[in-house]
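Here is one chain, start to finish.
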Amino acid sequence: MTVLIAPDSFKGTYTAGEVADAVAGGVESSGGTAIRLPVADGGEGTLDVLTVPLGLRPVTTRSRNPWGSPCRPTYGLSDDGTAVIEIAAASGITTPHDGPRDPVTATTYGTGMLVADAARRGARHIVVAAGGSATTDGCTGAIAAIEAGGGLRGASVTVLTDVTTRYVDAARVFGPQKGADAGAVQLLTRQLEAKARALPRDPSSVDATGAAGGFSGGMWARYGAELRSGADYILDVIGFDTLAAGASAIVVGEGRLDGQTKAGKIISAVLARADSTPVYAVVGSVGDDLGDYRSRFADVIVATDAVAMHEAGRAIAAGLMTGSGRPASG
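Its structure:
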């Protein structure tokens, strides 16, 4: 009996790898075989998940945070010229900053510096994970930094997104999460509308161009960036389909399972690929808006710490061994 354990991070508490290890320990304590396969959806943890499969080495360099202060973020670069950059590293909502965290002035300039740095170091394909930004600048900051840093030098760009929001809707949908009040949302929306018209291609009618406050749309319009589901890209790279085909069950996980989970997140992508293999969810909490989506899982288990995650793995494996398909209690 083999259980494929493919959790996302519990943001701010446990990395995807830590969750996978805890659940796997429980599976193995019940005599099952556990395959650890930490995942991400294009946000926090993407670099960690892709480092081994893509052969990335860490590159730490100078950049700027969303409000212009110096910072030293890290991205990944492989010997064959693939770079992986998390927008959250330099332009993230949790990026350290001592001053005011103004959502209107926050800029992606620092991420553009990383893109230009990767191109200077010989990257031929630059992958940017667009989750977790503090910005709604429509990518103007990043474009300015890329041009100031010598351009892409022939590199292609893929932006990984976990939303389908369009460019001019980015402030309305995500602005409040970044600290924008109603007036700021209106101002940012007007700015995005003007920027959309000024770009070489208008991203307004293209799905997923609103990721990271329009960063994805700006990269698509200015540099022809490919926009891809972060969840599907990552599952392809780590060989999920092959591993899932040989598994008796799959365990997914995230900090909160709710109505947002089905909107392009990694768990929805796993469910779409699982075929008839039962999928168990081990999560930090469950939202009231989950509704009938819960029926997609063989079971949903709330586990808020490593001990509870270990117990969830043990119970899932024990239930599979008894043939009930339900976690065994006790």
